[in-house]
Amino acid sequence: MKALVLSGGAGTRLRPITHTSAKQLVPVANKPVLFYGLEAIAEAGITEVGIVVGDTAEEIRAAVGDGSELGIEVTYIPQEAPLGLAHAVLIAEDFLGEDDFVMYLGDNFIVGGISGLVDEFRADRPDAQILLTQVSNPKAFGVAELDEHGKVIGLEEKPAHPKSDLALVGVYLFTPAIHEAVRSIEPSWRGELEITHAIQWLIERDLHVRSTTIYGYWKDTGNVTDMLEVNRTVLETLEPALDGEVDEASEIIGRVQIHQTAKVSGSRIVGPAIIGPGAVINDSYVGPFTSISENCRIEDAEVEYSILLKDSSIVGVRRVEASLIGRNVEITPAPRVPAAHRLVIGDYSKVQISS
Predict the structure, then answer these.
(1) How confident is the chain (355 residues) per 10-residue block, as mean pLDDT?
(2) Which among 38, 143, 165, 184 is least surrounded, fewest beta carbons within 10 Å?
(3) CA gap 65, 225 in Å, rounded
(4) Does one domain contain both 189 and 325?
(5) Which runs of consecutive H residues, i.e. helices, occur in 185-292?
(6) Which residue range(s) make up the domain with 32?
């Protein structure tokens, strides 16, 4: 069995972070969200992995390499444009061959991995197996319709009038039957080859499409709110490790990881929180559910429920929270005279100012 991991896409909902970084590489608890999926695939016993890449291909390659550090063998599959999930299957046919495979969206996060799902699929081998979960906003997802016996009878992509609240989770399992389906469908109104249309093609030909409804934790980390929520969830499982330099004037409470090259002085850190390599925390407060990446500096400041990407600093600022802060960012107070906010903000940014 092989895996097909989708790591293209523009990541428009995470702009401006994704203007300069692949959305799949935004870190959760200081590890790229893509790596959680790749690790889940490896834990399921799948080692041959094709990664579909787009404009951020070089960055994905630099981060993942040949996959050996994650216990997998990676083949990169270029996609000229984000033309749909079924299009990704179409261009990966040479790699997939006649093998069954799991398709995993690289910006999705599922607590508990996929080993049980893969074992179940291997045992029964339906033509397709989809994961479903109840959502409050089904119009934003692919939606499944089930009959009274729980059988999948229809799928729609982002329907205006959803027939259920069961959304497709970004993990699919297929036999080679899917290849004829993706070759047979036409682009949707969005100009994309939709995987929902391909699965619907299987349903209409009485092939076996099975669904599994999951009630555990799943998130599409495509926006800031969900990214922070996933970060919170991962940090709740954090194992404490105070390996860095912490002075006697500092107070460390709860589940906190401090990298061996990080330094903490005169500060209070309340976990769960993670402090990355080379980070410096001085005369500051770091609150729960905060991830501080490598070479960040927090001085005379407060930050909570936030993610800071590498090489960024917060100096002399009170109470930063619920924030996703990019790389090489500097956050400082404005001069007192004249009293004003001074901002250099990129496209598609969002700023909330307490005044």
Answers:
(1) 83 48 80 91 96 89 93 94 91 96 88 87 93 85 83 84 87 95 90 90 92 71 77 91 95 96 97 96 97 95 93 91 87 77 66 70
(2) 184
(3) 29
(4) no
(5) 195-204, 224-235
(6) 2-234
Residue 234, phi then psi, degrees to nearest 5: -65, -45
Contact between 225 and 241 under an 8 Å Cβ cutoff? The reply is no
Read off the CATH number of the domain in which 37 is found: 3.90.550.10
pTM for the full predicted model:
0.84
Per DSSP, the three-state class of 148 is coil
Domain termination site, one of 234, 269, 297: 234
Q: Based on the number of CB atoms within 10 Å of its own CB, is 339 exposed (0-12), middle (13-18) or buried (19 or more)?
A: exposed
Q: Do residues 187 and 124 both lie within one domain?
A: yes
Asked if 127 and 59 sit in the same domain, the reply is: yes
Q: Are 215 and 133 in contact (CB under 8 A)?
A: yes
Strand bridging mode 2-7 / 101-105: parallel
166 and 257 assigned to the same domain: no
Measured between alpha carbons, how far is 260 from 256 in angstroms, rounded to an integer?
A: 13
Phi, psi (degrees; rounded to nearest 5) at 30: 65, 25
184 with 167, same domain: the answer is yes
What's the pLDDT tens digit per position in 281-322? 999 999 999 999 999 999 999 999 999 998 999 999 888 998
CB atoms within 10 A of CB 26: 24
CATH of the domain at 304: 2.160.10.10
Give the three-class secondary structure for 196: helix
Residue 220 phi, psi dihedral angles, 5° rounding: -90, 110
